[in-house]
Hints:
The complex is a heterodimer. Chain A is of the alpha+beta class.
Amino acid sequence: MIRDYFRVLRVDLATGRGRIEEIDGRDTQAGGSGLAALLFDRMGFPDRGWEDPAQPLILAIGPLTGYFPLMSKVVCAFKSPYHDQYAESHAGGRAALSLRFADLDALVITGKTRRPSCLVVGSRTLEVQDVPYLWGKSVQRTGRVLRNMFVGSGHRSILRIGPAGENRSALACINVDSYRHFGRLGGGAAMGAKNLKAIVILGDASFELPPGKAYAPLFEKIYGQLTATTMMDKYHNLGTAANVAVLNRIQALPCRNLQRTSETDIVGITGETFADRTLLRNTACAGCPVGCIHLGFLREKFKEPNQYLYRQVTYDHEPIFALGAMLSVLDPFQVLTLLETAEKAGLDVMSAGVALAWATEASDKGLISAKETLVPLKFGDAGAYVQAVTHLGLGANDFYRLLGRGTMKAAEHYGGSDFACVLGQEMAGYATGEVFFVSQALGFRHSHLDAGGYAYDQKQKGKEAAAAVDFLVQDEKARVLLTSMVACLFAREVYKEDLLAECLKAVGYGNLAETLDDVARRVQEMRWRIRLKTGFVPESVSIPNRFKQVVTWQGPVDAEYMESLQQAYSQRIREMGKPNV
Amino acid sequence: MVMKILSTPRMERCIGCHSCSLACARLVYQQLSWDKAGIRIRSTGGLSTGFEAQPCLACDPAPCALACPTGAFGQRRGGGVVVKRKLCIRCGACAAACPVDAIYLDPAGEPFVCIQCGRCVEFCPHDCLEMVEPPAATTGDASLPEARP
Lengths: 581, 149
Ligand code: SF4
Ligand code: SF4
Ligand code: SF4
């Protein structure tokens, strides 16, 4: 619905009641990242810990959600169980359109229920149901039960956590509609801390189209651009998994806990191999014709002689890097088995893989033993990793509970910080060089998607820290605009600022369309301001030694350059996030 | 001229993008909606694990049109219905009569159904949908009695 304010449902889990609030700021915040920051600024408590029931869990969509193709993402914001600072995580599935059709620009959840519960919202629904019988259940099982409990198949979204979230692991994700995730920075634990096992969003309202003749033809034009050109081919064809071979070839794929950057036997886990041997089908987020979600097929013999079962597991570059390359597990079916196990537990697969890669090297070096890991860990031993992933999800002992708070926490205790592959959080699957490492280590979400540092590295622009940091700040700003709409970042080549302005005008946000540059800057600054206020100290982020030993196609990483990048970027973050006077 | 009808011959390819139903809502009904459309997509879950459409079968004769007491739903040549919205009294008889739940009644009871226009077809990125010639009408053998319990 087009309106010049935000319509926000605020639910207090303690009472099971909610209130619709009309909040100004459409023309200054847009929505998504901007709206989430505004809501956290008003309703969050920077000085209190993430587990405080009063902390809000925020889901926000943008002014273009559902109106144009690939405007299909939701921003989830919360005080992070990982670093106890303000955080964002993004996901698709059907969550964005479900919020749109529930007629909510944002859902804010505060408080904590007495018993494990499920929140159900829709355009005519608000319920908090006790679901103690779902506590302890896997993500998949929980999904199956909930699908049968509520109406609206296909026109709703089901968000849920697994045991990892219930155990408040900082590596716990929120699963969205089985195949997408609010993966990073511990969103699953933020839900767990509220005793909230699941959120069901019913997309059951309809709206008149915006008046005027501009909208439908513009939709068609963009739809045509996104589908007729080859632009989206890479996402649909092999998907992001295509990167595995590409990065391996240029020696930029983190392998074996980043002991190296390419693997001779990589062919077992390339996107091509996954497609040839495991790909069952593609699926899409609602409102996206690209269909980048790749579902692999996992067949398991559960009994001799010929008793099989099968499962579908989603894969992408990042999961393959984390539970494949980083662990030297180079068989696609073994990788899928590990992914499935992590999904069940409700763990973020990237963080889990990188954490176990560290644990394996720490075992090799004798810093920990099977006393800690319960099962001896060895690079390439997929069977052991299946058990270890389960232990990590369940927090099976002190070691796994500590590792579940983040690899660096465990490394600080057991030793081995210099080879913990942590850049703000467990690293993403790019070892492209200095700019990427600093970009992830200091980036707002500690994500490879905050800014294109990995692309900058590959363009070899010399080693001028100021220029690189300029690029990161500019690129972040452009992405903040997209995540305020909320577009899928895969569409970033199509949705440039001019086109976004045209879209906004076509649906009736003329004022907002006029000031996009200001909006982007404002939201970028506001996010940093909140982040700093909740305790972020960019200067003191440590980039472990392992990253300084990396050798890529460009040769060894230049530690001094990295140092100067960190200084320059920290300074820019300070400037962007300076308190309002 | 034979009037074509919408068919869904290749739903195994469906990726669940909802482009078809959103296009119908947008172009036929001037709505932003998952529901107010002639086709709706559901996830099947469970064993078949994919997506299924809930399209109109373009019946001839159409039970929904036969059930409609005001003539708002009339028989369309080639199958399916011709809808005259002004005549609709929101009784819901059409939706109750449809064997495949292809008619969506909004909260006010207004019916939304496929009018066999074909506009959704080009929005499907996987070519799941197609406008086809209708099969020969199955009017039955008039010499036989109606089967009744
Ligand atoms: S709406 Fe239902 S009853 Fe009417 S023509 Fe279509 S399938 Fe047949
Ligand atoms: S054929 Fe026309 S009315 Fe039927 S679903 Fe497609 S767009 Fe809608
Ligand atoms: S447009 Fe095609 S692929 Fe997309 S939901 Fe409709 S039938 Fe499925």
